[in-house]
Design goal:
- The protein is of the alpha/beta class and 275 residues long.
- It is 39% helix and 14% strand.
- Strand 2, helix 2 and strand 3 form a beta-alpha-beta unit.
- Bound molecules: adenosine monophosphate and manganese (II) ion (3 copies).
- One manganese (II) ion (MN) binds next to loops.
Length: 275
């Protein structure tokens, strides 16, 4: 069975509609797919219908933006009730901060000599519910400030660089609480991507586990082979299950295509063990 439990559509910062994501996943041999748009579940009904039509299994998903210590982390929610009020309210609360943040990102870019970024980013927004740094990144490429999407975050939009602004997202405890209230599982997304020391990473994994977190992404495009082994060992030592996801955003913008993932390393418990 081929699982892909992390990807994005036009309901957040992906380039393909929920239906297109599902069809592409099916054509690439994915058996079980979760659509995990940032802070939103509005694409799930469409994706589920497309999955039924394509004959693949579909799992509800979302990727929640969370503030932990002084960094932003992402928590993937899987297999929850998509109509649960606590989770929907929590996601709405997270989304509600995004427009003000986007205006502050634009002010920061304007101060660095790049005017018009808010309007520019808005041109790439595909869901009125959500504006993200990815939309700013597409604008910065279009406006010629960087050549390629993969270089944007090296020069802009990240801590210490123009276009980065601090922002308070949900707390880790709230995020896990909403996911569990809705009957879902909480997965720490791409742990290899966080700019923390190894002590900081252990602190994060410890907090995540103590707050009830269920699994970590062991397989992710952000992880090199040595990190895959490292996160498999950390999952085991923390009593956490393991998940896998391409974090696909669309053609030309992703390191891995849908379903392009090796099997989980030996000895970890898959997050889908009890599905
Ligand atoms: P936001 O939730 O608005 O902070 O936007 C985060 C999104 O920006 C991520 O989900 C990625 O799609 C994109 N992103 C962040 N950092 C990078 C990076 N280093 N390379 C490519 N995309 C990135
Ligand atoms: Mn994204
Ligand atoms: Mn993420
Ligand atoms: Mn993602």
């Amino acid at each position: 069975m081929r699982f892909d439990l992390h990807c994005h559509s036009t309901r957040s910062d992906g380039l393909l509609s929920p239906t297109e994501v599902v069809r592409r996943a099916a054509s690439r041999g994915v058996d079980v797919l979760a659509l995990t748009d940032h802070d939103d579940t509005s694409g799930l009904a469409e994706a589920r219908a497309a999955a039924d039509e394509a004959g693949i299994a579909f799992v509800t998903g979302a990727e929640l933006s969370v503030s932990w210590d002084d960094i932003t982390i992402h928590v993937v929610a899987l297999r929850f009730d998509p109509d649960h009020a606590a989770l929907l309210g929590g996601l709405e609360q997270i989304r509600s901060g995004r427009d003000g943040r986007a205006r502050r990102i634009a002010e920061s870019l304007a101060a660095a000599g790049i005017p018009g970024a808010y309007e520019g980013a808005r041109r790439y927004v595909t869901s009125e519910r959500l504006i993200s740094r990815t939309h700013f990144a597409r604008f910065l490429v279009e406006a010629g400030h960087v050549h390629e999407m993969k270089d944007v975050f090296l020069r802009y939009l990240t801590p210490g660089r123009p276009g980065y602004v601090a922002h308070a997202w949900a707390s880790l405890g709230d995020a896990i609480g909403w996911i569990h209230a809705a009957g879902g599982q909480a997965v720490l997304a791409h742990p290899g991507r966080y700019k923390v020391s190894s002590a900081g990473l252990k602190g994060l994994l410890g907090d995540f586990r103590d707050l009830g977190g269920d699994a970590i992404e062991v397989l992710s495009p952000s992880h090199q082979a040595t990190q895959i082994a490292q996160f498999a060992a950390l999952a085991r030592s923390h009593g956490l299950a393991a998940s896998t996801g391409s974090d696909y955003h669309g053609p030309g913008e992703s390191w891995l295509d849908l379903g392009d993932l090796p099997p989980l390393p030996f000895g970890v418990e898959p997050v889908w063990k009890h599905w």
